[in-house]
Amino acid sequence: MFNNTDLDMMRLAIDEAASAARRGEMPVGAVVARGDEVISSASNTREEDYDIAGHAEITALRLAAKKLGTWRLTGCTLYATLEPCPMCAGAIAQARVKRVVFGAYDPVSGCCGSVYRIPEDPAFPWYTPCDGGCLEDECRRLWDGAFGAARQEREE
Description:
Largest sheet: 5 strands, mixed
Strand content: 15-25%
Number of helices: 5
Helix content: 40-55%
Distance between the termini: 43 Å
Shape: globular
């Protein structure tokens, strides 16, 4: 299901997520690519920037749009270590991204397969297929590690 490009791009997203974790952010990373060309990459910045929309996916989409000179990212794939939330899934649909590949499923707020499928909803004019589970174990370990550390801080 996942090709070598998918695996390579997800590894870059994992590196972004690890960077976020080192900065005290939730460990989510994202990459926007066109084929095997990286257009942009980003990690969560919500805490450090006090930005509600500081999700890795939103930032990666914004950076890609600036680099390409268009908000229409029709030939691009977005890679994310965690299943995109409703806000990010909506932005993905609006950006007309060609495909989404994500690592860990989010049964609480994931909107690319778990709770809902915003980019694949036929009510919207742009269909974006979503494929989850790419390097899922590595992505899940980052996410679980962050919540374990947060729990430990609350207990101290």
